[in-house]
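Objective 1.3, modelling of assemblies. Example input:
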Amino acid sequence: MSLVIQLENVSKSYRLGTIGGGTLRADFARWVAKLQGKTDPNLQIGQEHHARLMGQEFWALQDVNFEVKEGEILGIIGRNGAGKSTLLKILSRVTAPTKGEVRVKGRIASLLEVGTGFHPELTGRENIFLNGAILGMSKSEIRKKFDEIVAFSGVEEFIDTPVKRYSSGMFVRLAFAVAAHLEPEILIVDEVLAVGDAEFQKKCLGKMKDVATEGRTILFVSHNIEAIRRLCTRGIWLQGGTVHMDEDIGLVSEAYSNSMADQAPTVLRNRTLGLTLFDIRLCNRDGQPCSVFCPGDDLMIEISYDAETPISLPFFAIVVQSLKGSCFAANMLLDGHQPEVLQGKGRIGCLFRSLPLMPQNYRVQLAVRAKNGQDLIIDYQDVAFFAVSANLSDYGYQGKFMSLASEATAVVVPYEWHLPDGGIKPVALNRTTATFSNFIF
Amino acid sequence: MRPMTGWFDLHLSDLWRYRDLTMLFVWRDFVAQYKQTILGPLWHIIQPLFTTVLFTIIFGKLGKLPTDGLPPMLFYMAGITTWNYFAECLNRSSTTFILNAGIFGKVYFPRLCVPVSVVISNLIKFGIQFTLFLGFMAYFYAKGAPIHPNAVVLLTPVLVLIMAALGLGLGIIISSLTIRYRDLQVLIAFGVQLLMYCTPVIYPLSKIQTQYPQYLWLALANPMSAVVETFRYGFLGAGTYDVMNLLYSATATLIILFIGVLLFNHVERTFMDTV
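Predicted structure (tokens):
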């Protein structure tokens, strides 16, 4: 298979601080001074040393090398600021690299942001043509796909209404529909799956799979590691502007999930009330720190605290969230198990029994309040991340749509189907129960 | 496979590949501009008509500027029609980067599509105003005014081409520079107006020729001078027409356009980091 993308020592730098003088006069004065060998007249006194700092560069990407073969589905993961967006911008030719060379074969279409170039005054029909052309389609291509696009977006009735009267959901659906029907050799997808309702998201993932099976190359960037894991064959993990890992997607996503757990903020502090929380850990049943769980596992969240001044009736609230929202929570105000007073150093924990969670990524948010919620001591913030990972066939799932199950609701409880033929098909959250019930019936 | 470096890597073939997009931009400009207006494209007629009337009163009647013996209405209208086209091309293409930063930051397409579409969509407006001018010409001709259309009329497409290229060239130079120097945005607004007074729009070139011959070269250094005068000479039969002047205009335009495209291409590659 031939190479379609080749990056050689690609680096991108941004200058920190203000760029240039901003006005012609200042730049001209600087240029004249430079000719005369004097220092920059625009600098304030004592700023000479600062000048080097002003020109300081921030390398968003540094010596990035990789190749993508035709038909490969590459997942790109990394924390915020790792250089993912810069990389995609360079690949989609929005900006040029500072150093290095990018070679691309074939047409690239990027879904960096859907709906680019939509004009509010124009109708849906008119915008399909305009947007399609901006994304690189010719008029005849759009005409050929027009009906398909409209059907995919589900806004048939409003196709001749100006898009400024669309709901935001309709707008996004139409925009994505146009983008999804491009037929580029290389498709760049970034976070688009965060839009629309669950049904529409499923449609999008399905469309991407179609594109993939047609042998075209896809670069997929998302925070939804499960989605990446299912779609992609290979993963690149960017960290600090360099390629940290370039391996099979399974290895990369596992390593990344683990590191996410390590990198959560370790110390939360409220100076005025003198409360510090630190050493927040997720542990498994055996008390070992853990960041990847199986459905049905127990999850222990441990928090060390140091209260310099006594806090009366504090309450802790812990929320476990999937990417789509809250799954479940434990809140001392609601269950009434607040300690009388929190003073000195100590440890507090919360054990969630048999996680009813599907294979996805989750985060743990923590807040501390006091006096029935009036005093906000520490507001909700992410304190830990974990992933649930499983081979769903071990849990009673089967069939060709099994892989889509983890995209459905994050929380599931054990259930069983009682079928017309008298058969009972259980789906359980823990392997032993599943086998057990199979055994009995 | 293509590397992405070098000043002369112009990707002009890309521009051709995206011609559908350019035309859609033209169409969008035209359609979207007049949605929810009552008069719609009629504005293209109202604006030059009022300007002509105003100029006739102020410069013709009050200022008593000569008009090469032509009816003042026609004299000014010829100047305004041509000047407006150039000025609109310049004005609108000079904001290319600033106005489109949002869309440029998200998808790639040849950025030149935008200013080129501006020039084309202004051509439609020019067509409307030109028709208006022809109408007035016919009216004055029927009334027996001393106008003598001649073979120089055939140069009109060349004149339009020069105006378009000059407006585009200057416009994209300015739009490339505005990214760093926002001063130019302010400058361009009244700069174009000032430039009009340096061009024989409200006065004939012959006036400078007879009264201030020592400054004639300065007036002719402006590539638009020859264009406006030639246009007037062709349709109305009075004015200064010199092939050499026109050749100079064409050459200057080509150079400006070339510099513009070069600068524009250089800037478009990294402008997202500066804007």
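The two ends of chain B are 29 Å apart (CA to CA).
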